[in-house]
Amino acid sequence: MTDAAANDDAVAFEHLSLTLDDQLALLTIERDEALNALDAQLLLELATAVDLIEGAAEVRALVLTGAGRAFAAGADMKAFANVRDAFAGRDAALAGQDVMNAVAALPIPTIAAINGFALGGGLELALACDLRVAAPSAKLGLPEVGRGLIPGYGGTQRLQRLIGLARATDLVLTGRMVDASEALGLGLVNRVEDDALAAASALARQCARNGPVALGLAKEALTRGADVTLPQGLEIEADLFGLVLTTDDAQEGIASFLEKRDPVFRGS
């Protein structure tokens, strides 16, 4: 998979590159002249890329990053100029949310390598990933209220689920940016590393060594359990544990443990 898919019908992206290296997909936003702002074309390309990744059986983990000075510096404000119809605005928010939801729903580990600005829609894209690794120079925030707007691509919802309502309220209502160090303290990012892309790639490879079916079901357990009571969450976990035991990968993992060897997972 190079710049799209590993087949003769490779998709040509204008603002993205998509490469595959030993089960690791790297998706890079390449709209540096606009600080990788998410316009309608880029959102469409992201949706297409996610579909390609989901359909590629050889991909075991995804790293998402931005070229140049930013991860992604928000949604493209030009798209909202002179929009005065509430239904049109709602549709625009839902279109962005659909892309973020598609990233979040991928059954593989997803890691955002935040190399610079991750603001507005850019931070919302990072929030849709499972893990976030930031460079020391990274700046993160949801500054929409400073422009008379509110986050629309899932920021008000995913942020509070990640760092808690009080901390999320602080960031959303002030619209302030935080640096990588504060983001780490808030739980907004998982790690701060000098080379965020290399660290995110190493983390992705560590995840990819694990059973792919188990990874997908573990993500499902975490996601579904986040919005229910503890007893309900435990029921979800038990159901998925029962399901994973029926897989060949689980039996291979158990056998390899008993035989004191490394497992060879097939994704089935």
Please explain how this structure is put together.
This protein is of the alpha/beta class. The chain has two domains: 16-208, 2-enoyl-CoA Hydratase, Chain A, domain 1, CATH 3.90.226; 212-258, Lyase 2-enoyl-coa Hydratase, Chain  A, domain 2 (Orthogonal Bundle). Helices cover 45% and strands 15% of the residues. It has ten helices and ten strands. Strands 1-2-3-5-7-10 form a six-stranded mixed β-sheet, sandwiched between helices. The chain has a four-stranded mixed β-sheet with strand order 4-6-8-9. Helix 1 links the parallel strand 2 (24-29) and strand 3. Helix 4 (155-163) crosses helix 5 and helix 8 (212-225) runs antiparallel to helix 9 (230-244). The longest helix is centred in the middle third of the chain and has 20 residues, at 86-105. The two termini are 22 Å apart. Residues 1-9 have low confidence and may be disordered.
Give the helices and strands, then pairings.
Elements (H helix, E strand, L loop, with lengths): L15 E6 L2 E6 L10 H15 L6 E6 L3 E3 L13 H20 L4 E5 L2 E3 L1 H7 L3 E4 L4 E3 L13 H9 L1 H10 L3 E2 H7 L4 E2 L3 H13 L3 H14 L4 H15 L3 H11 L10
Parallel strand pairs: 2-3, 3-5, 4-6, 5-7, 6-8, 7-10
Antiparallel strand pairs: 1-2, 8-9
Helix pairs in contact: 1-2, 2-3, 3-4, 4-5, 8-9
